[in-house]
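Quarterly update from the structural biology core.
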Amino acid sequence: MKMDVQTLEAKKAGSVELPDDIFGLEPRKDLLHRMVVWQLARRQAGTRRTKTRGEIARTGAKWGRQKGSGRARHGSRRSGIFVGGAKAHGPKVRSHEIGMPKKMRALALKHALSAKAKAGELVVLENTEVKEPKTKVVKGALQKTGLLDALIIDGREVNENFARAARNLPKVDVLPVQGINVYDILRHQRLALTKAAIEALQERFQ
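Predicted structure, tokenized:
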């Protein structure tokens, strides 16, 4: 698959050949869905916790007589029906992570890249170099290339001036190639890869 390379000024800067085994697959929705679920599950902290009856600092002695009061035969103030009592079946500290093989994660990333390429939502940039970290300048450049709602993937290192300027734009995320992931690709309208990012992805999937 051949694609034109653009500069940040939306000018043509040659072309690049994209490998079909990364950008030319038929996207599988089931695989992409599973990958997104896996990513979001890993983000959950799982630190919510409530006390059980055994952890409540209250006496366990029977607080009322068995007969004659006309009320229920309660045996402890630690019960969940009382204010300050325990929580029945409350949340515990646990991991929400689910299993997903490494090869399936790599395949899901290929399908996400292929989905953007097939939908015409993939842009190849020559680089992301800017002289100074000015949001106004970067916003104007991204407006020309149609990347105001986009995930921009640079090479192994992100251009610092560009990243600092773009972080003020609400719908633009800039990541190094190591941080590329399926969820961020799919939640943005467009995906922009620099030539350095494409070379790094080719090395990664070899």
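Residues 2-45+99-204 form a domain with the Ribosomal Protein L4; Chain: A; fold (CATH 3.40.1370.10).
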